[in-house]
Write a structure and sequence with these properties.
The structure holds two protein chains of two kinds.
Chain A: H1 2-25, E1 36-43, H2 48-62, E2 67-74, H3 75-87, E3 94-97, H4 101-105, H5 112-115, H6 118-123, H7 126-131, E4 133-134, E5 137-138, E6 141-153, H8 154-159, H9 169-181, E7 185-187, H10 196-204, H11 223-237, H12 250-258, E8 262-267, H13 270-276, E9 285-288, E10 300-309, H14 318-328, H15 331-341, H16 348-351, H17 358-366, E11 370-372, H18 380-390, H19 400-414
Parallel strand pairs in A: 1-2, 1-3, 7-8, 10-11
Antiparallel strand pairs in A: 3-10, 4-5, 6-8, 6-9, 6-10
Helix pairs in contact in A: 18-19
Chain B: H1 2-9, H2 16-24, H3 27-52, E1 54-56, E2 62-65, H4 69-76, H5 80-110, H6 116-128, H7 131-141, H8 148-155, H9 169-198, H10 201-209, H11 214-242, H12 246-251, H13 263-272, H14 277-303
Antiparallel strand pairs in B: 1-2
Helix pairs in contact in B: 3-14, 4-14, 5-9, 5-11, 6-9, 9-11, 11-14, 13-14
Classes of the chains: A alpha/beta, B mainly alpha.
């Protein structure tokens, strides 16, 4: 009986240990020699995994003894996974993400100069270096970028008797009304929880608004922003947008745009390959600067994703990380990724290749005047989250000023 | 075996040790289960409470203790009370509707009719399908420009123009409750069917002999004898519906704004949109206490009158 008892307890214990073990097992790689690194990459589309598989194979062949374990994560899962990695101390060695500054604040990641060669460091376009800094030091490694412009359907514009794309907000409204009269939706406004912050900022910045004031303090409820949101609400109320912008995501807007049912919408370089071509390759559309309130200055929304390298095992992983990153940042490897995914370059050396495509060239040309979300502020991710949840309610019955004040409160609370 | 004999001889310690032995004897068989319960049930609860008392930065780094700060942050949220109210409405609405419908459905399945087997299978189907899939299908059926529900209502002339059902909080909530009832029905009606089948036939015979009407028989005999089944069904449903995430998340994400959030989606949003893990854990603790309270209240309410019946 004693034997049985011990056996049963042992069996029970081993179950428990196994259950506890799988939580930690895949973890930190403390036992590794520092030559195997874990790379968490974001899934941009169906081609992404194939690209990394090939790149890693190539890297391992050229760097004997070094290994990269690839983990692909869907963007929809990304925030949740990243937060869990950090919280359970299972951070990857290299992470492909859209934020880095709270990692820098909490001392989790290397400075850029510690993990790439000076040559790579000098190759980044200055605009992006500025976006990749936290307290004056570069932590993020610019990875891809994109810019937003106004897409318009030329056939619908002709049918509505319109010449070119609108330059001012008044034009947008008038043109949208004419398009509506011609039987389509005037302007496609995605203010649903997917990317409300990008759509809103595209309008706010062209009224002199933004997320922070000149001194870098949060200014979400500044008058220029309230005016921009009031304008969007006015567009919605006058019925020239699709119904219920507060629950609409980009994919839906561009699906309908591709079907020729929407006159105008804001999109990026990836919009053609990602949204329009799969639905209608022959759509007759044009791309124009984002309309501004007075029509004089046109700002472009810039977006940048980064790679960040996490400190682990007292820096034992640094050499492997540096080798891998230097390998990725060769002109050949980066430009291959950009072409495959339809993004804009962040390095000078990968730049020119894309300008040969007239569609892409418009976005490359818009980059120098582009404005970015304050990603170097560690509170930005919390603010973006609040915007995604709440901004849409301002056009569906809420009060723009009140909604923005609520987001301002979240911003101040987050730091 | 030595201890038993000794204790047996020693008159001053009458059989205490064997008693303890007997009490501990089942332990070897229970231990694995107890350990598992500890690891799978208790440990997460402890961890949840611990997290709710920690100061965790937006990146996920633990910065130390937070005292009650996460709880004060939580109770300062202007959306908290509406969310709690909506959660109770959601649970009560779905469970009551599902139970009433299941009583009827259970009765139907209990009756003898040709093709009963096929009907029983049909009732199981929503249970077999993934909840997420069902919710997504409904979401697309309710879509305002390509949804089949708008199409049908337009063609029938009920509507003049398509309605974006899920963009209006009240309508969205009703539709989601409908979906929740739909996926809750199979389990509940089969629990009730099992209950119906356990009622002996002679009880009904006696009722018939006494001249009781069909309705009286149902109220006086069937319902009271169904009490154990209803009890189990309700408790399981309350917990399930309370914690239901996929239906709400896939149909409205709790939006627009927070207008269709329940505590479950609200917890998720605090953690992964507001990046406030500590406060989210506090919400989870509140959620847990609410469930515990509801189940205890329900058990008391149901036990009190003639618990032995």
């Amino acid at each position: 009986m004693k034997k049985q008892f011990i056996g049963v307890v042992a069996a029970g214990l081993s179950v428990v240990l196994a259950a506890a073990g799988c939580g930690k097992g895949s973890a930190s790689g403390d036992d590794s020699d520092g030559k195997t690194i874990r790379f968490v990459a974001a899934i941009y589309d169906d081609n992404t995994k194939g690209y990394w598989d090939a790149l890693i194979k190539d890297f391992q062949a050229k760097n004997p003894g070094y290994k990269v374990a690839l983990e692909m994560v869907d963007w929809a899962q990304m925030d949740r996974k990243v937060q869990t990695y950090v919280q359970t101390k299972q951070t990857p060695d290299v992470l492909n993400y859209n934020a880095f500054s709270d990692f820098a604040r909490d001392g989790l990641i290397y400075k850029a100069s510690e993990v790439v060669s000076p040559q790579v460091l000098g190759d980044f376009t200055p605009t992006f270096v500025a976006q990749a800094q936290y307290q004056g030091q570069q932590y993020g490694l610019p990875f891809i970028s994109s810019a937003r412009l106004l897409f318009y359907n030329k056939d619908l514009f002709a049918k509505a008797g319109l010449g070119g794309p609108p330059a001012t907000w008044d034009d947008v409204k008038k043109d949208a009304q004419k398009i509506k009269a011609a039987g389509a939706t005037g302007y496609g406004l995605p203010l649903g929880p997917e990317e409300a912050q990008a759509e809103f900022y595209s309008w706010a910045m062209n009224n002199g608004g933004g997320w922070v004031d000149a001194s870098g303090k949060w200014a979400v409820d500044q008058p220029a922003n309230v005016a921009a949101l009031t304008y969007l609400r006015d567009l919605t109320k006058s019925g020239v947008t699709q119904p219920n912008p507060e629950t609409t995501d980009r994919a839906k807007v561009f699906n309908q745009f591709a079907q020729g049912r929407i006159g105008m919408a804001i999109g990026g370089p990836f919009t053609r390959a990602g949204f329009i071509d799969p639905v209608n390759k022959n759509l007759n559309f044009g791309v124009a600067p984002l309309p501004s309130r007075d029509g004089k200055e046109h700002n472009t929304l810039g977006v940048m994703d980064v790679l960040a390298a996490f400190k682990k095992n007292g820096g034992k992983n640094r050499e492997a990380v540096r080798r891998f990153l230097d390998f990725f940042y060769t002109a050949q490897n980066t430009s291959k990724f950009l072409k495959l995914e339809g993004f804009l370059p962040v390095t000078k050396s990968a730049g020119d290749a894309l300008s040969s495509d007239p569609y892409m060239k418009q976005f490359v040309d818009a980059l120098p005047t582009s404005k970015f979300a304050p990603t170097s502020n560690p509170a930005w991710s919390a603010v973006a989250g609040a915007v995604k949840q709440d901004l849409g309610s301002a056009v569906s019955g809420g009060d723009p000023k009140q909604v923005l004040t609520g987001i301002q409160r979240t911003a101040e609370k987050a730091g | 075996m030595d201890g038993v004999t000794k204790a047996g001889r020693d008159a001053s310690r009458p059989a205490r040790l064997p008693g303890l032995r007997r009490a501990l004897a089942p332990l070897p068989w229970l231990a694995p289960a107890l350990l598992l319960v500890g690891a799978v049930v208790l440990w997460p609860v402890v961890e949840m409470v611990r997290t709710s008392l920690l100061d965790i930065s937006s990146s996920g780094t633990t910065l130390g203790g937070a005292g009650a700060a996460n709880y004060t942050d939580l109770f300062d949220e202007p959306d908290l009370w509406p969310v709690l109210g909506r959660t109770l409405l959601w649970v009560a609405g779905v469970v009551v509707a599902a139970t009433v419908l299941s009583l009827a459905l259970g009765q139907l399945l209990h009756a003898r009719f040709p093709g009963r087997r096929a009907v029983r299978w049909a009732v199981i189907v929503p249970w077999a399908a993934s909840v997420l899939m069902t919710a997504l299908i409904w979401r697309w059926m309710l879509d305002n420009d390509s949804g089949v529900i708008n199409r049908v209502l337009l063609d029938l002339g009920v509507l003049d123009e398509p309605v974006n059902w899920l963009a209006h909080p009240a309508q969205a909530l009703l539709w989601m409750m409908g979906v929740a009832v739909f996926v809750t029905l199979p389990f509940t009606s089969f629990v009730i069917l099992a209950g119906l089948q356990s009622i002996p036939g002679d009880v009904y015979e006696a009722a018939r002999v006494d001249g009781a009407s069909g309705w009286t028989t149902y109220l006086r005999i069937t319902l009271p004898l169904l009490r154990p089944s209803l009890l189990i069904g309700t408790i399981v449903n309350v917990i399930n519906v309370f914690n239901n995430f996929p239906i709400i998340w896939s149909m409205t994400q709790g939006g627009p704004g927070h207008a269709t959030d329940t505590t479950t989606t609200f917890t998720y949003k605090i953690a992964f949109f507001d990046k406030h893990v500590g406060e989210s854990a506090a919400m989870a603790v509140v959620n847990f206490l609410l469930i515990l309270m509801m189940v205890l209240l329900y058990l008391r309410a149901v036990r009190r009158p003639g618990a032995r019946a």
